[in-house]
């Protein structure tokens, strides 16, 4: 229902602003631009879905081997004590816990192409536990918020963009991104737990959070010992080696269980094709709405308005130039990436705005895209508090990004 109102708002706001620009400013191009955006974004939505077909088929095939080889069940048992606290409605030892873990792990390594099919597989498992198929359950929402908060340990793509655009030290945003995305995820978990009345003050979760914090600190220290080029090399290599080890582990587990791994892979791959086709309407809907909103100039008006308000309050305004990336990120990953690149090209890769746009890009994920794709893949229409919690996590990530950027790179 919330997505319904937001989708309508995109069109209404775009129409009002376009009408104002036409009547009062004589802008004759605004409505053609809007209509062109509807065709362009619907084409983009189909291309994204088409591009996902191969990746979905690959990873759902691999996951099917893991299921039949018992790997997912093993992960579910290991993670049971922790996940039973965050996902109390999931039966203990259920295989979907392993699927959730695989998705979160891929996100943390910055492996977006692998994370999406793994996430869709996890959502399919959660839907199998759902008694009301068109309404999101508590575990679904917690899972979605963990995805939209964008917890990433190795933001490889951002570091590569910085290097390509001439940053003197492309990796100088690594630690700020890690800190910002940590706070985003923590805020998302807390907000969702408050909605769902989950008790976070228990020994299991506190111990897990402590261990993870120590692990992140050790990782930061380790990477801090490396120079820029070596950090990029180690980060990229580590992510890809771990990913290939996952594939090999699933294959060996299938062989050990005497599973016909080829047939299992094909069985899972067929599900990938079906899923890719199923999400096309949802992608078209959300991307067309976002495209119309952007083409009308609404985004520019919002940024200029925020800048004016901040200036009137006497607060620093040098962070406003990076705000388009932060606003676009919940709506469109590619759009936010474009805003990030534009900010670095306009202000410089090593400018305050350039660095902050990179931290914005790495601190959260594409909330509405994830909601549309994941919920759309299983036919969920009533999202309950998923959008609210997802946007709260985004807001926490944005605030943390600004504060962290001032701490590291402020004047």
Please name the defining characteristics of this protein.
411 residues, mainly alpha, 18 helices
The number of E-state strands comes to 0
Please state the overall shape, judged from the principal axes of the Cα atoms. Answer: globular
Distance between the termini: 44 Å
Radius of gyration using CA atoms only: 22 Å
Question: How much helix, percentage-wise, in residues?
Answer: over 70%
SS field, number of helical segments: 18
How can the largest sheet be summarized? none
Given helix and strand content, the structural type is mainly alpha
Question: How would you state the average pLDDT, rounded?
Answer: 83
Order of helices and strands: HHHHHHHHHHHHHHHHHH
Q: Which band does the percent of strand residues land in?
A: under 5%
What low-confidence regions span 5 or more consecutive residues with pLDDT below 50? none
Detailed description of the structure:
This protein has helices at 2-25, 30-69, 71-86, 96-108, 112-127, 138-148, 156-164, 174-196, 203-224, 228-256, 261-278, 280-295, 298-312, 323-328, 333-347, 352-363, 367-378, 386-409. It is mainly alpha-helical. The longest helix has 40 residues, at 30-69. The protein is globular and about 70 Å long. The chain starts with a helix and ends with a helix.
